[in-house]
Amino acid sequence: MLLVCPSCRTRYVVPDTAIGMDGRQVRCANCKHSWFQDGVIPPIPPAPQAIAPNPPPEQYGSVAVPPVQPAAPDYTRSDETAESQAEPAKDISETFTSPDSVNIESPPQQSHFAHEPPFRPRRNPAKLWTMAAFAFALMIAAGGGAIWYYGVPNIGMDLGMAGAEPDLKIILNENLELNEREDGTPFFIASGSIVNPTGRAQRVPEMLVTLKDSGGRPVYSWKMKAKVRSLAPGAKVDFSEARLDVPQAAAQITVGWVL
Fold first, then answer.
1. Which one Pfam family would you cite for this protein (predicted)?
2. 64 Cβ partners below 8 Å, 6+ apart?
């Protein structure tokens, strides 16, 4: 079998058994190009020749036999057969149902021009506004009755809302002034105590610490939380917190409530 490289056209002579009938992948030794070489199709053998059949041997002393004639069928006259098979027809009475006896329901007739409206009427907006006004008046009356019976509740004082200052006293310690650490960093310590002079528990809100200069102008401030959220009657709680890197002009301190 002759193989020709499709790239460099180099020819190779190989045996047919090396490729086989299914073909295989080959590579050119000259240019290293690979391709699939189809297999070798074996030649189709010629068809065998038809052999003529041998003639039958001659029979000696044979006698010719005439063909057998089929017997004539026995036909019967059609008149006799019709008379023997004919039977009188039966009297079949068919029963028909009158269409008047069938009950057919007619579909209900509905006029498109009936007096009934095709949809529900809209609600009267004036009636809805009247009901809303009545409910609002009822709520106002109930609230006024509760205030008259129980008195005005001190909501701002109990919840610590803006503008409601608690009945607590803040007592600052003495000698609160600007100090410096060994490395020269300025710091200020805000310390004191909170006293509840009333006869009921008081909620303790956040405190606002403000540092001022010698002229009374604020130079620094921060918020501070107390150790407790609520203070019992006649109780007292201390607080202390330091801040670093405060302005050198800080000379005074004031502590109030965050309202």
1. Zn_ribbon_4
2. none
Return d(Cα 131, Cα 137) in angstroms, integer: 10
Residues 107-161: tens digit of each pLDDT:
556 555 555 555 565 678 888 899 999 999 999 999 888 887 765 555 554 454 4
Per-residue pLDDT tens for 175-198?
A: 788 888 888 888 888 999 999 999
- Of residues 59, 16, 69, 4, the one with CA closest to residue 41: 16
Tokens for 5? 């490289």
Contact at 8 Å (CB) between 3 and 30? Answer: no
Write out the residue limits of the CATH 2.60.40.10 domain(s) in the chain: 169-257
Task: For the chain, state the CA radius of gyration.
Answer: 63
Distance CA 120, CA 101 (A): 43
- C-alpha to C-alpha distance for 246 and 212, rounded to whole angstroms: 11
Could you tell me if 224 and 210 are in contact, meaning their C-beta atoms sit under 8 angstroms apart?
no
Tokens linked to 88: 């009188």
Q: Which fold has domain 169-257?
A: Immunoglobulin-like (2.60.40)
Return d(Cα 34, Cα 126) in angstroms, integer. 95
Q: Is residue 219 within 8 Å of 247, Cβ to Cβ?
A: yes
Residue 119 contacts by C-beta under 8 Å, 6 or more apart in sequence?
none
CB-CB contact of 219 with 249 (8 Å): yes
What's the CA gap between 242 and 259, in Å, rounded? 22
**CB-based contact 257:167 (threshold 8 Å):** no
